[in-house]
Each structure stands twice: as structure tokens, then as C-alpha cells.
Automatic annotation (TrEMBL):
Name the record gives this protein: Lipoprotein-anchoring transpeptidase ErfK/SrfK
Span of domain L,D-TPase catalytic: 101-240
Listed pathway(s): Cell wall biogenesis; peptidoglycan biosynthesis
Upper lineage: Bacteria, Pseudomonadati, Pseudomonadota, Alphaproteobacteria, Hyphomicrobiales
Organism: Aminobacter aminovorans (Chelatobacter heintzii)
Keyword tags: Cell shape, Cell wall biogenesis/degradation, Glycosyltransferase, Hydrolase, Lipoprotein, Peptidoglycan synthesis, Transferase
Length: 246
């Protein structure tokens, strides 16, 4: 499934994974290192966001982030009062300047935007791991999965041998509530190559708005379920460290 070269630019690959070593099996399974490592590194300064509005279609936050029955899984509710309000799903004036339908991840503010018509965007709070800062640029959501498997990369298994049971060789970690990729995963490709970079769900709601030791771009499970239904395959995505710096 080819990707249009008109809507993407080569990605900056600071500390980027060696794509040549990634086989077809690895491309089909996530290599995001999303097991909670406990450690944290210094975050970029937070920028005060514009005053948000809640889309009436969302309903109130208690219901928005309440328990969800999904594909046979019972997703626990989120204690929304413990999440900083700016990281809850909301409608804002679009700050990206991108065309409607584009996803924009601003790693400097821990926000993901889905650009809409009429100068608006849906904004989601995200958590970022080291892989989430590995590159920036334009790509596409090549495909997406509900309740995906997770496979740690070999270098992570080298540091944590107990994860060998979840390797590609052993079929990965089965989907479920404790799977680090959560309820959904969006797989990012550039020039028809898997970047091994994912936008995905997470059961660790307390990491939203933070930079942690591992992972790609994580959303609360309720948010990734919502985003998944709004984003088709081949959706363009921009990852940037500060809007206006693309």
C-alpha cells in the first residue's frame, strides 16, 4: 500500500531505530517500548493552552471517561479529577494551520490535535516516552489495530530478559487490559517504511501530560478509542516539537 510522497517529508532520525533490521513480522507488531520504567527525564516547559470548550456531543467528562465495554474487554473508568484539565479531550481553536483531517503531535506541550473544519481541532492529552522524542516530521497512519499485540524490541529484551516471552519469536504479548499498547494502536509509516512509532492507548492514565522512560505517544484508552473511530488509514500526521517549527 504505497504512501503519497506529496504529503510527507523525510523524518529527522535522532537516535532512530535501524529500520533495515525490522522484518515484516516486526512491522506488523508494535516495537514501542511502553512498559512502565518508573524513571522520568526532564520535560519541556509547559505552554499555557487556550481556553477550551467541551463539544456538547462529548457529554460531561465523568461519562466521557467512564467505564467502557469494548470488544469483550471492560475498560476501567478514569478518575478525571486527578487528571490536569488541559489534558482532557476538548475542542479548541486550531493552532496548527494544517488541513482538516490531519493529526498533529506537539511534543513540547504533550498535546495531540485532530484538525477539523471551521478553524477548530479536537485536542487530546498525551504521554511521551523516549521514543516519542526520537524524531519529528510528516508521515501517515498506514494502518490501525483494535486491541493490538505488543512485542518489545530486542534491545529492550537485552536489558530486561524477562520480556523474552513477549518477543516476536514468541508471538508477542496478547491483547488485554494490561497490554502496554492499550485498546488501540495507530501505526505510523513514512515512505512506505514502518517507523516503529505508534500512537496508542495506555492503561496508565497518570502518565498523560508527562515524559516517562519508555513508550511512543500514549493516550488514555477512552481517548484512543475515540480517536481511532475518527481517523481512517492514510491519515497524514505531523510530529513536531513546537507548532510553527515543522
Amino acid at each position: 500500500m504505497p504512501i503519497s510522497h506529496d504529503s510527507s517529508r523525510p523524518l529527522t532520525r535522532r537516535g532512530f531505530l535501524n529500520l533495515a533490521a525490522a522484518g515484516a513480522a516486526t512491522a506488523a507488531l508494535s516495537a514501542c517500548s511502553t512498559v512502565s520504567g518508573g524513571g522520568q527525564f526532564v520535560q519541556a516547559p509547559q505552554i499555557v493552552p487556550p481556553t477550551p470548550t467541551i463539544d456538547p456531543a462529548f457529554g460531561d467528562y465523568v461519562n466521557m471517561y467512564g467505564p467502557v465495554s469494548d470488544e469483550g474487554y471492560e475498560v476501567p473508568g478514569i478518575p478525571v479529577k486527578k487528571v490536569k484539565p488541559q489534558f482532557l479531550r476538548q475542542i479548541v481553536a486550531d493552532p496548527t494551520g494544517e488541513r482538516p483531517g490531519t493529526l498533529v503531535v506537539d511534543t513540547s506541550t504533550h498535546f495531540l490535535y485532530l484538525v477539523r473544519e471551521n478553524g477548530q481541532a479536537i485536542r487530546y492529552g498525551v504521554g511521551l516516552g523516549r521514543a516519542g522524542f526520537a524524531w519529528q516530521g510528516r508521515a501517515v497512519i498506514q494502518w490501525k489495530r483494535k486491541w493490538p499485540k505488543w512485542t518489545p524490541p530486542d534491545d529492550m529484551i537485552g536489558r530486561q530478559p524477562e520480556l523474552e516471552k513477549y518477543s516476536v519469536r514468541n508471538g508477542g504479548m496478547a491483547p488485554g487490559l494490561n497490554n502496554p499498547l492499550g485498546a488501540r494502536a495507530l501505526y505510523i509509516f513514512q515512505n512506505n517504511e514502518d517507523t516503529l512509532y505508534r500512537v496508542h492507548g495506555s492503561p496508565e492514565w497518570w502518565t498523560i501530560g508527562k515524559s516517562v522512560s519508555s513508550g511512543c505517544v500514549r493516550l488514555m484508552n477512552q481517548d484512543i478509542i475515540d480517536l481511532y473511530d475518527r481517523v481512517p488509514s492514510k491519515t497524514p500526521i505531523l510530529v513536531t516539537n513546537g507548532l510553527g517549527m515543522a
